[in-house]
Amino acid sequence: MNIDKNLSTLKYTPDTVSHLTPNPNDCKICKNRPCVNACPAGVYEWIESEGRLLVKYENCLECGACRILCEKKSLKWEYPKGTKGVMFKRG
């Protein structure tokens, strides 16, 4: 199964505001950063040179894995507003 091929079939209507808000201080002290490794859509990327977490919320599949795995439980996660976010073809 090719995850990139499957992800390319999804349709997104991104919001202009992120529905994912990590606490930047917690991200700096977190050693493992499981959100970066666990996200199936690659929403999170740690930028070492800047010491910050890049959040590409537009690609979020709304699975909640990042929220569950966050060691510090400091990720504010909610569904996108109204008709925004990912649209699944099969329910």
How does this model look, in words?
With 91 residues, the chain is of the alpha+beta class. The chain is 23% helix and 20% strand. It is built from 4 helices and 6 strands, in the order H-E-E-H-H-E-E-H-E-E. It has helices at 3-7, 24-29, 34-38, 65-69; strands at residues 11-13, 20-21, 44-47, 52-55, 76-77, 85-87. A two-stranded antiparallel ribbon has the order 1-6. A hairpin with a 4-residue loop joins strand 3 and strand 4. It is globular. The model has no long low-confidence stretch (mean pLDDT 86).
Low-confidence stretches: none
Spatial shape: globular
Give me the strand/helix succession: HEEHHEEHEE
Q: What is the radius of gyration?
A: 13 Å
Which range best describes the helical content: under 10%, 10-25%, 25-40%, 40-55%, 55-70% or over 70%? 10-25%
What's the multimeric state?
Answer: single chain
Give the distance, in angstroms, between the N- and C-terminal Cα atoms. Answer: 20 Å
Strand order of the largest sheet: 1-6
Annotation, overall tally of beta strands: 6
